[in-house]
Amino acid sequence: MALPRARRNDLDVTLHEGEIPVDEGVVRSLLTDQCPQWAHLPLSRAGAGTDNTMYRLGDDLLVRLPRTAAKASSLRKELRWLPRFAPLLACRIPEPRHTGVPTDVFPTSWSVYRWIDGDEVGPETVSDWATFGTDLAAVVRDLHAVDLMGATRTGDLSWYRGGELRACADWVGAALADCRGIVGTEIDVDTLERLWQMALDLPEPSGPQVWLHGDLRPTNLLVRHGRLHAVIDFGGLSIGLPDAEHAPVWDLPPEARRAYRNAVAVADSTWLRARAWAIAVAASGIPYYQHSYPAFVAECRARLEAILTDASAS
């Protein structure tokens, strides 16, 4: 894969209980023991996200190390399913090259992927946001059209974001209350609660279950020459209802959001549920990461503000 998923000053913070310590020495040890053909290659820190820490290996490879043992389950999914998706999607996706086994210095699975060149999504790299929204919609349509190949919404392929909103009502309500205690009057949490409740009052979706990426935030998208080039980090890969898949479009400018919705042809009820999922994820992210990951908290706040701006204009 390619780019840092966190700013440089966020790389060494602890985000979760039970994080596994990792540094260049640990990574070099893993490579020497399990991938000696690559152990001589240059190694440099390439970024970190909420689930993984990454090191670039030479020019063509990326080492990805889960922050906790629980985060390692995504590696098994990616190893099994990404090679099957690759020929079916128009954009590039991660290509697994090696799945490492636990050792004394790193007690869980880890992985090596082919490096994907690309730029972070932002105003410096995307000039036509409407085209970007249309490109993202095409990727989502293609992924949701992929045959399930006998897979079902069980085990590692079952995640809350592909389920029903009502099943999340208790923890989302608590997250909104915690969020209000942190942001005060800076964000209109009362309106966010009304928008969340509006979606809860809708009939639950009855459409077919599909493949879901699960986390199409801008940090998981790469561009080249201003166009969407790759989708990375399939750790949230699951099967379920598509509503939550659309939620990250509130992380994009309004032009991209409008183009995306038009291209996917999202029904009004689906759009309202997608907005509710966007509220749920952002509102829970603020209290969870308030002391450890300020860049992510800023993303969550910006998402909630975009939702409120849209709601006030409708």
UniProtKB/TrEMBL annotation:
SUPFAM superfamilies assigned to the protein according to its UniProt record, in alphabetical order: Protein kinase-like (PK-like)
Superkingdom of this protein's organism: Bacteria
InterPro entries reported in the protein's UniProt record: AGP_Transferase, Aminoglycoside_PTrfase, Kinase-like_dom_sf
Domain Aminoglycoside phosphotransferase: start-end pairs: 44-277
PANTHER family: AMINOGLYCOSIDE PHOSPHOTRANSFERASE-RELATED-RELATED, BIFUNCTIONAL AAC_APH
Name of the protein in question: Phosphotransferase
Taxonomic classification: Bacteria, Bacillati, Actinomycetota, Actinomycetes, Micromonosporales
